[in-house]
Amino acid sequence: MDITIMGLGGAVSRISFGRLAGIAELVDPARTVLVTDRLIRRIHGSSFPPCPVVEVARGEAAKSLASLEALYGAFMENGLARDGLVLAVGGGAVSDLAGFAASTWLRGVGFGFAPTTLLAMVDASVGGKNGVDFRGTKNLVGTFSQPGFVRIDVELLSTLPDLEFASGMGEVVKHAVIAGGAYYELVESAAAGAKGADTLERLVAGSVEIKAGVVGRDERESGERRKLNLGHTVGHAIESATGLPHGHCVGSGLATACRLALRRGTLGAADCDRITRLIERCGLPTSIAAAAALAGKADGAGFRALLGASLPADKKRLGSDLLMALPSAIGSVAIEAVPLSDLQSFVMEAP
Prior knowledge:
- Helix content is 46%, strand content 20%.
- The protein is an alpha/beta fold.
- It folds into 2 domains: 158 residues, 3-Layer(aba) Sandwich (Rossmann fold); 182 residues, Dehydroquinate synthase-like - alpha domain (Dehydroquinate synthase-like, alpha domain, Up-down Bundle), CATH 1.20.1090.
- Helix 3 crosses helix 4 and helix 5 packs across helix 7.
């Protein structure tokens, strides 16, 4: 199965499914620099093409200006030229960093991704958002630039710890709420225990198709693509305050968004309960309190105030409002202008 995203200016991003070992067919080792982390290199290094390998920090620690500077230095040392290629093999943090570095090195060189986690397969590697964190705020510095290719090897999911798999399901559930219908039912079946190889491939392919379709229609997030921020407004605040995996924070943020939509009268109680149950069955926290407990944080007024204080830095802020993705039903998500003060108040009292 191949999925294509047509970017602005005629840029084409091709997403294909196949073995990681086949990635050598897509690159010229003499012109390629591979970016990964130490653990991924140890587990999957035998499948890497014969090209220079640069190791970066594992996880969110990779997405810093210091890591970016070090990666630029490695590009210089390896003579990465305008006709070169950056290949990122790893999770979402590796692809976010490598994609941003490639899209800014020499004003832009080609790059491709081979995601190794569920989160990276269904989210970070698809859509052309690349970036690093700045002063504690996620993805504050970044670019829109599409990878030339993405190679997805679903068999790599068998090496994932349960925690990392659950984190990826946070983004899968988000896509299911946006799409609804048969895909939502597939995710429900997977969460109930149907996780055979065929189900996993359909799960990943369906999620990728949903995101790729949205990105193809709105690459620069001027309209429809804002729906992909579902669960992220409060989720990013939770992530900054707790350090929990991204998908766990999206799950908690999505459940909070559902409760806010219920409070505003735009989401019915039945759909709110069904979405929250799905999040829980995926092994994700379903409230701010549950996320705090999972992170070993005391859920007091100080913790809630910390969450509220981080909301004004959200990239979707428009004056005194936040453009927030809120579900109105399973399969229907709307972008609503929520007064920042209202959201901060809700965060203080929400479960």
